[in-house]
Amino acid sequence: MSLRWLAAAACLVLARAAVSQGAGDISVRVTNADAAPIRGARVEVVGVDLVASAGADGRAVLRLATGQHRLLVTALGYVPAELHVELPRQANGTLAVVLQRTALSLVGVTVTASPTARALGEVAAPVSTMDARALERSLASSLAATLSRQAGVTVRSQGPAASMPIIRGLTGDRIVVLQDGQRAADLAATASDHGITVDPLAARGIEVVRGPAALLYGS
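Predicted structure:
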């Protein structure tokens, strides 16, 4: 027997085995409301790791075993649709699916420079808060000295009274000091020999705002 006859016999055996198991092909043609094929539509067998994509003619072919199957048809920009298929009754048949257009709903993406995921509010408004208990532990003679232990804060000092906080390397008029929402009326931001007039002993809490959120309080 030649190799050609052996190959033909092997194909015949495989075909008979497939028929005995009751497997069959299901063709799904996906179109839109204008009867135009939807290329790339995804046809998935629910509960089974079996997926097919529609070609240029909107047709996707799946080979399914005997039984009832639920198909989920999805495409970007269209409402998903479900189909129920029963084999072998619908074997080698073609199912037509018409998907309706819908508005795209995309999930926002937040890009951060932190090693772990953080909420958008924390990224845009990094704030260090000192409550009354924290003030008791860190209280000093001036506001700048009181904040000197906060992350990213150091002190520019020309004496115990003439001190100004440095936040992330910025000082002078690049730092805004507010008391009860109003700017401190002193010369600390314009002259290095003047200190901030805000008394830390009278404070019930202090907030240090860094980054873009600081623009809410001034340029």
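Summary: The longest strand covers residues 24-31.
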